[in-house]
């Protein structure tokens, strides 16, 4: 056993979160793609079977009340809330992240002071945020100002209505300064909208503590909700009364079953709902969140940093010189829970890794992404991934420049 | 056995669709709420178990390709297409009906000739359509003109951009004249958007045959997709190249995995996609659609009309004089697949019906709704429902006026 393998073993032994791994369905694969699709919590299939056979199959329509289907969006929102540092009553689950970005950005422009016409958008954002923000801008008479997150403070001004930022960059894994940028947005009198897709469940977000206005996130990455599980919308309590949704569907109505022709929005987080909730996906997510019971996000963060540090150390020790370069910041304060390595021949390298049981993913053209989900990835996984990567890189010549 | 009971027995014996009932999980309940939540097709739990344990649990991220997750929205759209009279390649599944109404209404205003500023909306519509259309109007600089469907031809004019109509009224069960109204909309140079929630799967729609421009619908009523299963959007082939979505999420991009900052829409129905598809709800729907294999919508329609005719006949024979009045049109050409009875004390009457195993639903303040799903409701069910209704009405005095 090599030195790094022994270190891995010791780190796994000391790891207080290690027992959580057995809550998930995993095999011999080193699964480093939980930042794209989280692994299956073992108990979810049995729970969903009950939803299907008992709640849908036998109770049918009665389940909207008796099985708590109707209130699932806000109930599950309250389960996510502690993971992202929000008090209850501010998060509602439903729709895709893209749809929630639309709600949040349009609503942000309506919360902003009159007469401001600019929406600042993270220029390195996951594309859907930019596409949807562009549509929101077009439909609300604003213009988009693309800006690198670090440059936001300098770009803010009296024309800034809203700012849409990613907490962690999906490609590089860079963690942006949510507290500092939110404060800068507020100092300029604008509204801060954060996309938490790549941070929620991996590190502390502190939505309430840092005064975030609006936030969205998906639930199928570090929250393990299942493929395409519904996203969520956070509307800070202080903004709820003025939150003006561009998608005022009937389930956000103050009295939805009165079915009145005039729209009157519900109070609270419920105002962010739109249509009938997709119960199967939603209740799978709810069950998945059980794995968070008693888990503190600070412990998750500590392990995440230790894992990515250790992986980078193993890569540095094992990989042939010059074949991969980390684009993930070395500073902890700037690092999410993934490591992105630039590699000229990333596509065949990732294919070879997957064939050898190390599953990460590719961001074209040249980025190998490895996500570290602290609930089920261990240090031995990190060491093995680096070792297999080194083997693959050694076995394949670097392409001619 | 009474005369009507004998008639019911004979009708059930002759019913070519009767064998389909065994494909569903049903019990002794007379389930007449399939127009709100369709019953569970028996094979769905096993299929979803496979999706959970094998596709998510074992293949994980690989399932986006290997299990066909990525293409599910358009693949399932093509499964729905024949049920609503559409050729392949025009329907995409995803999001809620409300979200699809937003896409369709905004896109309709963009397809309409320049300079038109009115959106006509069915004044008796299911509320969400009205709320969402109002938001679409606000965001696109149009104004809403509420109009009864029958009055649409007279209300159309050179200012009409788009018209949003329900094929079947959710409350009364009235079937509107889709071919005639669509033709009138086109004659005025406007764009026709139809909401098929209460017709798809219960009667022929003929989207292509009647030249409908855009349509939306849910899948959890007569299509039995499960609670809150994803809705769908139809964009007629001739409009696809100009279809300009207000929700241009990344999965509607021509090359989504290139993740380019600029949006370039995909061709075809895929352009109506938004975010990551909710796979669990979506694949439950896909499995549910198996019950349609080999079933013709004309046979479904014939049985639906026979069922509602027979139910109305039984109610007339059994119910105490003057306690209930049908608000569902007697004419077949104006009837959907539900019977709505006005009843002064509808709320306690429906509660008593449900307690006695006849499940319909209530539309406040005074409408008892009974949905007839031809795939699994039989004539004996209709007779029993009417008989129990009569018992309940006889046993409870009519409230003082």
UniProtKB/TrEMBL annotation, chains A, B:
GO molecular function, one term: kynureninase activity
Source organism, top-level taxon: Bacteria
Cofactor(s) of this protein: pyridoxal 5'-phosphate
EC top class, as a word: hydrolase
Binding site for pyridoxal 5'-phosphate: 97-98, 126-129, 195, 198, 220, 250, 276
Gene3D superfamilies: Aspartate Aminotransferase, domain 1, Type I PLP-dependent aspartate aminotransferase-like (Major domain)
InterPro entries attached to this UniProt entry: Kynureninase, PyrdxlP-dep_Trfase, PyrdxlP-dep_Trfase_major, PyrdxlP-dep_Trfase_small
Catalytic activity: L-kynurenine + H2O = anthranilate + L-alanine + H(+); 3-hydroxy-L-kynurenine + H2O = 3-hydroxyanthranilate + L-alanine + H(+)
This enzyme's EC code(s): 3.7.1.3
Keyword Electron transport set for record: no
Keywords of this entry: Hydrolase, Pyridine nucleotide biosynthesis, Pyridoxal phosphate
Role played: Catalyzes the cleavage of L-kynurenine (L-Kyn) and L-3-hydroxykynurenine (L-3OHKyn) into anthranilic acid (AA) and 3-hydroxyanthranilic acid (3-OHAA), respectively.
NCBIfam families reported in the protein's UniProt record: kynureninase
Sequence similarity: Belongs to the kynureninase family.
Record's subunit section: Homodimer.
Protein name per Swiss-Prot or TrEMBL: Kynureninase
Upper taxonomic lineage: Bacteria, Bacillati, Actinomycetota, Actinomycetes, Kitasatosporales
Gene name, Swiss-Prot/TrEMBL: kynU
């Amino acid at each position: 056993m090599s030195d790094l393998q022994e270190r891995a073993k010791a780190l796994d032994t000391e790891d207080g979160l290690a027992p959580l791994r057995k809550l998930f369905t995993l095999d011999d694969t080193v699964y480093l793609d939980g930042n794209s699709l989280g692994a299956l919590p073992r108990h979810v299939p049995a729970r969903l079977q009950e939803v299907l056979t008992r709640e849908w199959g036998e109770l049918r329509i009665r389940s909207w009340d008796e099985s708590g289907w109707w209130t699932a969006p806000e109930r599950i929102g309250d389960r996510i809330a502690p993971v992202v540092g929000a008090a209850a009553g501010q998060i509602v689950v439903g729709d895709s992240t893209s749809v929630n970005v639309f709600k949040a950005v349009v609503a942000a422009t309506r919360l902003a002071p009159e007469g401001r016409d600019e929406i600042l958008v993270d220029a390195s954002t996951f594309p859907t945020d930019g596409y949807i923000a562009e549509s929101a801008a077009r439909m609300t008479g604003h213009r988009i100002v693309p800006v690198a997150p670090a440059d936001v403070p300098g770009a803010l001004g009296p024309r800034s209505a809203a700012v849409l930022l990613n907490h962690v960059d999906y490609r590089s894994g860079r963690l942006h300064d949510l507290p500092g940028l939110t404060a800068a947005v507020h100092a300029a009198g604008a509204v801060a909208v954060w996309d938490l897709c790549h941070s929620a469940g991996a590190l502390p977000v502190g939505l309430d503590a840092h005064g975030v206005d609006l936030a969205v996130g998906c639930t199928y990455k570090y929250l393990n909700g299942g493929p395409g599980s519904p996203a969520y919308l956070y509307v800070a309590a202080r903004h709820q009364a003025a939150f003006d949704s561009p998608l005022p569907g009937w389930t956000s109505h103050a009295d939805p079953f009165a079915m009145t022709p005039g729209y009157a929005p519900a109070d609270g987080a419920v105002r962010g709902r739109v249509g009938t909730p997709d119960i199967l996906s939603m209740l799978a997510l709810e069950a998945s969140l059980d794995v968070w019971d008693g888990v503190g996000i600070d412990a998750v963060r500590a392990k995440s940093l230790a894992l990515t540090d250790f992986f980078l150390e193993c890569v540095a020790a094992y990989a042939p010189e010059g074949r991969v370069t980390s684009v993930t910041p070395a500073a902890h304060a700037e690092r999410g829970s993934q490591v992105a390595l630039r590699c000229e021949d990333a596509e065949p390298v990732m294919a070879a890794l997957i064939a050898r049981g190390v599953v990460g993913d590719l961001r074209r053209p040249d980025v190998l992404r490895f996500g570290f989900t602290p609930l089920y990835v261990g240090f031995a996984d990190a060491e093995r991934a680096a070792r297999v990567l080194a083997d693959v890189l050694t076995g394949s010549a670097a392409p001619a420049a």
